[in-house]
Fold these 4 entries.
Entry 1:
Amino acid sequence: MTYHLEVWQGMTNYRRFQLGPIDLQIPKGMITAVIGRNGAGKTTMLKGLCGLPPFQKGKVYYRGVEIDFLDPTIRKYMTYISNDIQMYSDFTVNQAIEFVASLHETWDEDWFHLWLTKFKVRTDVQIHELSKGMKMKLNLLFGLGHQPKIVLLDEPTDGLDSISRQQFFDLLQAYIADNNCSIIISTHYTKDVEGICDHVVFMRDGQVTEYGEVEEIRQNYRLFSLPPNEMIHEREGVIAITTGVETKGVVLTELVDTLPENVVIKKPTLDDIFLYVVENGGDVS
Ligand SMILES: Nc1ncnc2c1ncn2[C@@H]1O[C@H](COP(=O)(O)OP(=O)(O)OP(=O)(O)O)[C@@H](O)[C@H]1O
């Protein structure tokens, strides 16, 4: 299978931080969430994938062909959308639209205005007069207006209220359905992307600790809980945290039968897997 976007042995070294080596395959027509705590290396990896800047070592492929990050035409099919919005602050929204549209041959005027109207962004005001949420929505539309095939979004919903967040994801789902593209979203807030993403990449300390289809990963584990006085011994495949209220943890699905009979078993959410496996256990398998 040829994946839409692939990285082999991607590495970046800063003075106090090493990212990778990372191997990843990103499928087409899906949303992939990159989840990790602050400083895990999400931004460094997203930027490496689109060459802003490229990984210091390793190769990135688009539809099976190695990307040459010195080639400016990659900007036609790839976009990196940061949530650090400092754009054209004194322009009116209309002036900014005219400017951004002029930068792209493939700018889709109808699509852009459809979503501008849905998002109710005023166009006659200066950008600095817009609320943070409106700026973030406009920023997203600016990033997608030329209809790129690889969309990298760095913590796109940080600071958005729940309705704006929903609108944001509605747009992304409509976009992916129309464009058959790949969307990669980084976040440190798992609940944000639960139910939205099809694939997930968990990161910790500059490394990818787990990745794959969300449903498959959820099937690999079970969440268990016990009264707090019933301790459970952690061992390979079993991670538990005891609080005053209960002992709770995750277990590899194939080891469920080895737990005490009175455990309550549930299917874990992505958030459970992030908390127990990625952040606490590191590696249960
Ligand atoms: N240009 C740089 N020079 C030196 N160190 C850097 C540089 N950029 C990032 N780092 C370091 O690399 C590490 C990973 O940063 P990165 O921004 O990739 O993490 P992140 O997971 O996106 O974090 P956050 O969720 O806080 O945005 C951090 O320790 C950061 O200080």
Note: Residues 14-15, 17, 36, 38-44, 188 surround adenosine-5'-triphosphate (CB under 6 Å).
Entry 2:
Amino acid sequence: LPLPPGPRSLPFLGNVGDIDMVRPWRTYSEWKAKYGPIVSCRLIGQTVIIINSEKVARQLLDQRSAIYSDRPAGPVPKLFGIDFITAFLPYGDTFRLHRRLFHQALRPDAADSYRDLYLDKARQLLSNLLGSPEAFEKHLFLYTASIIMSVTYGYDKVSWDGPPITSIAKLAELINVGIQPERSAILTAFPILTRLPPWFPGASFQRIAQRTRTLALESMNEPFEFVKRNMAAGNAPKSMVSDLLNEMDGEKHAYSEQAVKQVALTVFVAGFDTSSSTLSSFILAMVLHPEAQRLAQQEIDSVVGIDRLPDFYDRPSLKYVEAVFREAIRWHIVAPVGLPHATSSDDVFEGYFIPKGSLVVPNIWDMSREGHDDPDVFRPERHFASDGTLLPDTIAAKPMWGFGRRGCPGRFIAEAATWSAAVHLLAVFRITKAVDESGKEIEVKEEFTSGVVCRPVPFQCSFVPRSTDREKAIRLGD
Ligand code: HEM
């Protein structure tokens, strides 16, 4: 049987020269128009299957997940000392154990049990923004980091420039650089390069790898020991690690401390950049679309009133806010091609052969545009049916979280935490373009970085308190 259709490829490099390496999802969408929703190509000796439709992704990655849940084998995670991170594990026993621990700690009801925390940290975010609005990116990072560190290890407060955040955040940043797909493809094709000494011209990746290995060990051990010390002293707050360690005692040998450490560090690595980028993108959308912002604020004022701040029980009544939130996420999807899956055995789909070991790339960017008119336009109204009711498709069911047994286990926490921040920002601030010294508005562009996770290119904006009473209340809560 033939492979799925696709562009002709050169003997060794394959289709490397055909792909927009900065925004590969755009090339994949062009191929969809030519070849259909499932496309095959070659990248330096590797068969790549690109899925350009949610329907096909569900048929293969969800319904045949026993075949489509591996990750590409390559030397990069090991070289960088991060092969224990769940997202890089091959499909096997360790992977299954990690997923079981994630399920225990992050399933929907567990994620709901942290609602007070999301609200508390969102109010802290507002206070930080009142203090230094120009540093909003840093405050978003701190918001995400403090929720993750509290849920995972029980930290009450974390500071941006102190341990353990400095090393973990640096690690997350280096991993983002280290796992760039182009570099992975080259090192996978020429594993000999991984033996180059760090001083060799062009081998700067070896220095990054060395630093990442050290940071990974540090970041795994330091916060873990913090929980163990607290547990020994009898004052460990509830957290993912303390819960798992407590359960481990009752369930001897079911899993090891090492597995708990690995899963815990994965939460930060996988959740930090993705969640803070989502919020940054939401703020950019509000700056560029003041009318949508105004309508959302009008709704908050009428549902919540002006004497209190929003809470999760308001969410079902805040339908326009929900549409704005959904649209901000859809408008610029944070991980446009998610993470590649790999097949662990041969398969046949609609008359096409999909060989074992193929890389399978879901084009989530294209899927988020399917069925929408003018998909580039920011339009919250698209999430309402013609009778004015909000469409039933929830954020948790969207392709943005990936697929099948590899789908994002942090989606419930991520969604609740980003919603909490977004609705608080809307309740308290008018988010506008910043003005320069002469009073002129500083233009803001709809520009995003590229990579596994995409965030808006740094921009300036203003956070103008909408009510002096609320401003006072937040300042007093400092
Ligand atoms: C808006 C924020 C987030 C987005 C958009 C997002 C999206 C994704 C995507 C697309 C994948 C790849 C799924 C696949 O391969 O099919 C993924 C994997 C993963 N995510 Fe998230 N994620 C977010 C936040 C989080 C958070 C907060 C956590 C942890 C609490 C988390 C934990 C993970 C883990 C552990 C994996 C790897 C799963 C595996 O390989 O089995 N993510 N995420």
Note: Residues 71 and 341 are 5 Å apart (CA to CA).
Entry 3:
Amino acid sequence: MTPAPSSTDSKGMTAAPAHTAPMLRRMRNYWIATAMLYLATMGLLAAQVGAGYTPRGPALLLSVVAACGTLAFYALIHFSARLKIAPDMLAALQSLFAIGCIIAGYAIAGPLRASLLSMLVVAIAFCTFAMHPRRALLLAGAALAGMAGIMWYLQAIDPQGHPPAVEAMSFGYLAAALLATTLLASEMTKLRRRMKVSKQELLAALDTIRTLATVDELTSLANRRHMNELLGAEERRSAPATSCVALLDLDLFKQVNDQYGHAVGDAVLRGFAGAAHGALREHDTLARWGGEEFLLLLPDATPQAARQVLERIVTRVHALQIDGMTPARRISFSAGLAERRDGEPFTDAISRADKALYRAKAAGRDRIEVA
Ligand SMILES: Nc1nc2c(ncn2[C@@H]2O[C@H](COP(=O)(O)OP(=O)(O)OP(=O)(O)O)[C@@H](O)[C@H]2O)c(=O)[nH]1
């Protein structure tokens, strides 16, 4: 039998799964396991025939039916997507076929028939893992009904060979084993589902943590921690290349807060981040370094190229219009730009950029100073 992988939503509902490549591979793997089980059973059946416990004709017929059915199911798995057979349905059909074979085996097994009951338990355990618990329960019911039918038939036509009391007690054992297997396996299924949901929740939490660890909440730019990681990675980069860093600081931002309120101040920070981000080259990174201060990393950039990027930012920031601020109030920033010297740690380059920024502020703001 081929377990049908299925997806479970947040409410625990099981959706019909699509025929994905890994799922087909899994179905084929289960098919191989099932085919080996059939092969082993046929070998045992042949041994029973050899020992004279089982009649040759019915045993041969059952073996042929089992082999043809197994091959037919391989083809059905292969073409299941094209034939639009849901994996769950395929698993149910395979289970029914296996149950049918086992019941027929029981009918012809003679004194060894009780051994076939254990195979039925295995088949039902497979079903419970493979499909929705309700469907597995139905199949277990069908298996029990089928066994009850064949046992009744056998004791009716051959009470000597199949004493009614023995058949009834065997049925009792079978019913108890199937019930226990179904309950245990459905508990396992519930456990697996819970683990799957927990795994999804953990992955979502990990995603949130990763975002919190790298992104500044207000501006959605890289945060200081992430920028430090990027600077470290850039320092470790083997290719000798010229990189630049720039510190950007909004001008007279305290006045914005005081005059328009903190919420407008926040909107200015977001507006600045969006405008600046749009002016960057593909591999540049702008991070919120602190309050209204930003650090720009420009890998593989000469000071001239870095300056061009900063000037693009200036143009965009000057054009910013923030809701709640008088249109005449222009947003501006000052910047200190420094080239990273060969092999120098970024902290040194940033420190020079900071001094250049200080000079830009001292010189009247709204300007770029190169270290
Ligand atoms: N709205 C808002 N304000 C912030 C945030 N972080 C820092 N600030 C404010 O930014 C202001 C920075 O003020 P200052 O350091 O005096 O600098 P400035 O007014 O920009 O003056 P210069 O840098 O000299 O041009 C302070 O009033 C901080 O409260 C924030 O997340 N949101």
Note: The two ends are 73 Å apart (CA to CA).
Entry 4:
Amino acid sequence: MSLLTVEELDAGYGDLQILDDVDLTVDAGEYVTIVGPNGAGKSTAMKSVFGLTDHMGGSVRFDGVDITDDNPEDIIRKGLSYVPQNENVFPSLSVEENLRMGAYILDSVPSSALDAVYDRFPILRERRDQRAGTMSGGQQQMLAMGRALMLEPELLLLDEPSAGLAPDLVDEMFDKIDEINATGTSILMVEQNAKTALRRCDRGYVLAQGQNRYVDEGDALLDDEDVRREFLGG
Ligand SMILES: Nc1ncnc2c1ncn2[C@@H]1O[C@H](COP(=O)(O)OP(=O)(O)OP(=O)(O)O)[C@@H](O)[C@H]1O
């Protein structure tokens, strides 16, 4: 049984349907990426898993439990965390306050969770008292990821983690994601940087116009001439 199973999902915003019969799975420990053209519905697919869109059909199951109609707070409690692409830190709060917010559903924040995040992102420990809004884009992205890791989720949803980062920071970000996955956290990631994402992941989905187009191991998609021609710029 997969950790996450999305079946025949139809979803969108109000009356506007974006996803049409989307199927998606993530196995325990797996690193899965979703790529595709602008407006394909990649972010919408991820938001739908986290209870942030209007559900119009199909189902989402996590760890065998139906979460299709759950709200994000219920979903977080079940072991899923989400890092949105934009506005993913509280700019006027310090780094540490942001991290503590990541565990707001707990009565008290375990210091072991804070230490684990600081060990993974030493820059956050160095800057624990700094206001998040004064940090660089890359550091804010690390903070957003750190905050999502505060509850030690089984599955981490990442929406465009490399967006807006300088090229050397993009590699560092992907290395961090590899490390997080290597210690047992499953990953579902949406990325514009399709070639890099497919090279790094275990398995990839190509979405177009709200529908599944291709699914295979990342390397197999990179080697597929049709995928290359249609979606990866040749
Ligand atoms: N909150 C919203 N309300 C209404 N329509 C939305 C909303 N968010 C996204 N859309 C629309 O849904 C469609 C799919 O958007 P989505 O962001 O999921 O695509 P994407 O594949 O992630 O694209 P991109 O790579 O450009 O982020 C687009 O037509 C977009 O305009």
Note: The chain has ten helices and ten strands.
